[in-house]
Amino acid sequence: MTAPHQGQPLLQAGQALAQARAALVLVHGRGGSAADMLTLAAELAHPGFAYLAPQAAGNTWYPFSFLAPLEDNEPGISSGIEAVRAAVAQAEGAGIPAERIMVLGFSQGACLTLEFAARTPRRYGGLVALTGGLIGPEGTPRDYPGSLAGTPIFIGSSDPDAHVPVARVRESTAVLQRLGGQVTQRIYPGMGHTINADEIAFARGMMDFEVDQPAGE
Question: Topology of 10-210 in CATH?
Fold first, then answer.
């Protein structure tokens, strides 16, 4: 299986990794870019954070709807999950523990963020999915092994949304709760396929763990 997203750029902003006390991985949506996500990092500016934004080959993590059969979106899904995992690993390699690493994605990036978390569960600093859900068609088995061990998770989406059915958002919330995530779900009537100020404010609040838990404790 090829790995289309490996070898793509990993953009960085904020605190240098070697000096950072926490990290936020930002995963762009279909047609977006890592550079786009670093503009969002400016809205989420927080002392001590490094921001890492992986880039998808061709600006798309996988070709079809996230509701399509899984095999139709491979190797994009697996390669995209590996790109997120590699960004998390880079932060860990710089001495930042997983409990201080957050992952935030929008749209296709939100789907990838949730699928990454479900397939590689552990205690992360936080997960933020802005308009997305777990990947796969209706009826996809969701018997993921492992535990998110109390990881704070925020899932926000519009009702309706042109690409993400609200039923899938609610299903994803239930699955992540079963995996031990502490999930906050917010559905915004008629918001459209975008990010709103309430979501940004909530995500910024989740980043306060860096202040509350000094390194070494």
Answer: Rossmann fold (3.40.50)
CA 14 distance to own-chain centroid: 18
Measure the CA–CA gap between 34 and 201, rounded to whole angstroms: 21
As a whole number of angstroms, the distance between CA 126 and CA 99 comes to 8
> Would you mind telling me the total number of residues written for the chain in this entry?
217
Neighbouring residues of 136: CB distance < 8 A, sequence distance ≥ 6: 66, 67, 69, 70
pTM for the structure as a whole = 0.95
> What's the pLDDT tens digit per position in 32-67?
999 999 999 999 999 999 999 999 999 999 999 999
**Residues 18, 35: Cα–Cα separation, whole Å:** 21
Q: Kindly give the residue spans of alpha helices, DSSP state H, lying in 28-156.
A: 34-43, 76-93, 108-119
Q: Work out whether strand 49-54 and strand 10-14 pair parallel, antiparallel, or are unpaired.
A: antiparallel
In tens, the pLDDT along 77-110 reads: 999 999 999 999 999 999 999 999 999 999 999 9
Instruction: Give the Cβ contact number of residue 162 at 10 Å.
Output: 9
